[in-house]
Amino acid sequence: MRFYGGKAPVNKILMKGNEAFGEGAIRAGCRFFFGYPITPQSELPHYLAWRLPEVGGLYLQAESEIAAINMVYGAAAAGVRVMTSSSSPGISLMMEGISYIACAELPCVIVNIMRGGPGLGNIAPSQADYFQAVKGGGHGDYRLLVLAPASVQEVLDLVGLAFDLADKYRNPVMVVGDGILGQMMEAVELGPAPEVKLPPKPWATTGTAGRKTRNIINSLYIEPEELEKVNLRLQAKYRQMAEEEKRWEDYRMEDAELVLAAFGMVARIAKAVVDRLRAEGIPAGLVRPITLYPFPDGAFERAAGKARAFLTVEMNAGQMVEDVRLAVCGRRPVYFYGRTGGMLTTVAEVAARAREIWEGLK
Amino acid sequence: MLEEVLLAGFGGQGILSTGMLLAYAALAEGLHVAWIPSYGPEMRGGTANCGVTVSDAPISSPLVVEPTTLIAMNGPSLDRFEPAVKPGGLIIYNASLINRRPVRADVRALAVRANEIAEGIGNVQVAANVMLGAFLELTRVASLGKAGEALAKVLPPRRHHLIPANLRALEEGARIAREAGTKERMKAMNKVWGQNSEFRIQKPE
């Protein structure tokens, strides 16, 4: 949506995915953004560059992604809602800072609009940063909460959730999309801006007003005994996240015997595949993880009861499929279909693979 | 109803904006829409294309792989995407820049001399909207009126003085499609229906 200098209108409007990330952040009370441009996510900082000043916020283009994530670290320590965004190679540069923020237990939101890799790769859509996002791309035993929207409307909704979860757990939250989600325009319902109530942050480094001592935010613990305590606390937090935050969508799963698994934009393609297979009499269904971490393994455990086989579809060489296999735990075969390098998976290709699997089960 | 439209041409021909105009017009008709640009490192003179999906049901896959309609603004676009068009689909091609007919016999095709028409209107930049006018006339995905209203959303305010030229472009395109339909009916009366795929255009409802 091009809001040429105007205010964001209400009702249904067309919006680019990248712009929805920006507007979603503003509606969630985010007032600080630090980043560095990179295709295919540059519309996001471009949008916030004019939109944040409108609401009294600050947009700053840093000199690099490394600088940007450390500015996020500082702003988060001061207790404000803050976001950065980048695309795959830029996110790799941020990994050291993300590990620091995770250890310092600070809330922030990081958006990764994934592009073809490895290396400098290309600017085409990809999902090849799944491992990096959910297994901890930086060093140390840390976890991010990872959300994967599949439509522009869901971008708006999940960015709000991301800020809430970040504050709830004092943990960085990553929202991942691919180049298509960032670039595509869809209709969204904005509605009136919600009233944002920011939770109190007594730990924030806001000076000593009202307190006897300074708050200190740190990720350096020289004594092993101390650092182990920090780790145990983090692990307890991650367990709580796993208990409370798993989210997914079931699509035509009631009697599904061939279960597709896909996240983000690929899940849209997989839905069309399910419809096509159903029309041919193949009882297919889809489980779409919305949180990639914590992974909704229960949905797959349950599906394994009726399912005869699983087919994971991704725009990578097979990453989430490992988590599906862990969840299914050998009870059913788990197949994989994917394209790499920025190539798109198409409905026809995936449907052909699914038919092949179904025939093999007979 | 599911229309998957692929608009393709040179960068600078207004492909992305015309696709956006279609998306806004269909949205105003209460339909579900998705618009996806090809976003390669492209610039004026390079290739540009975008896919617009319009449906009365929520759109599952927004990728336009097998378009129901191809709007080809130049020769390379027709060469590249003609084989992908769905059987029974529609090709609207810019005959100002494309000096061949589509070879597919299983699709409908309409030639529009979009550049000449746009130059006649006084601005070659509106050529893509001539094509859109023809498309809307043939498919009735959205009314010309809704497309006209959407111009103010797609064009930035500094370009609003071009709205009348764009309106004329839409109308001229629609007129050409109508006339092609009339020719087609005459041919049908001459019992050549089905033999000449070039003008197998049905009369719009």
Describe this protein's structure.
A 7-stranded mixed β-sheet of chain A has the order 3-2-4-5-7-6-12, sandwiched between helices. In chain A, strand 2 (32-35), helix 2 (43-54) and strand 3 (58-61) form a beta-alpha-beta unit. Chain A has 12 helices and 14 strands. Chain A folds into 2 domains: 12-205 and 235-240, Rossmann fold (3-Layer(aba) Sandwich); 249-361, Rossmann fold, CATH 3.40.50. Chain A has 362 residues and is an alpha/beta fold. The relative contact order of chain A is 0.12. Chain A is globular, with a radius of gyration of 21 Å. Chain B is α/β, with parallel strands linked by helices and 205 residues long. Chain B has a single domain, classed as Pyruvate-ferredoxin Oxidoreductase, domain 3, CATH 3.40.920.10. Chain B has helices spanning 15-28, 75-81, 114-121, 127-139, 144-154, 163-189; strands spanning 2-10, 32-37, 47-55, 69-72, 90-94, 108-112. Chain B has a 6-stranded mixed β-sheet, sandwiched between helices. In chain B, helix 1 (15-28) crosses helix 5 (144-154). The radius of gyration of chain B is 16 Å and the shape is globular. Chain B starts with a strand and ends in a 16-residue tail after the last helix. The model of chain B is unreliable at 190-205 (pLDDT under 50). The A-B interface holds A 2, 4, 12, 14, 39-40, 123-124, 179-180, 183-187, 265, 268-269, 271-272, 275, 344, 346-348 and B 20, 23-24, 27, 32-37, 39-41, 59-63, 65-66, 153-154, 156-157. Strand 8 of chain A pairs antiparallel with strand 2 of chain B, so a sheet runs across the interface.
Quick tags:
heterodimer, A: 362 residues, alpha/beta, Rossmann fold, 2 domains, five-stranded mixed β-sheet, 19% strand, globular, B: 205 residues, Pyruvate-ferredoxin Oxidoreductase, domain 3, six-stranded mixed β-sheet, disordered C terminus
